[in-house]
Amino acid sequence: MMNQNTCDLNKLLQQDQNANQFFCSLPEYVQETIRERGQNIHCADDLHRYAENLLECI
Question: What is the rounded end-to-end Cα distance, in angstroms, of the chain?
């Protein structure tokens, strides 16, 4: 069963082509972290902020 985090993210990626392209351009480990812990990602801005924070932490 898909959890709410993945469901919200998948919905965003299906509805927003630019968000999907951005997500696909991210390194695999960033994508995986977003899938696992991205419960607050409901729009493209959320996705960009979350990814930027992850990339800064490397």
Answer: 31
Where residue 23 falls among pLDDT bands split at 50, 70, 90? very high
Number of H helices, E strands in the chain: 4, 0
- C-alpha distances in angstroms, 53 versus 1, 2, 14, 21, 57? 28, 25, 23, 18, 6
Domain with 40 in it: 4-56
Q: What three-state secondary structure class fits 2?
A: coil
Q: Is the pLDDT of residue 30 over 90?
A: yes
User: How many structural domains comprise the chain?
Assistant: 1
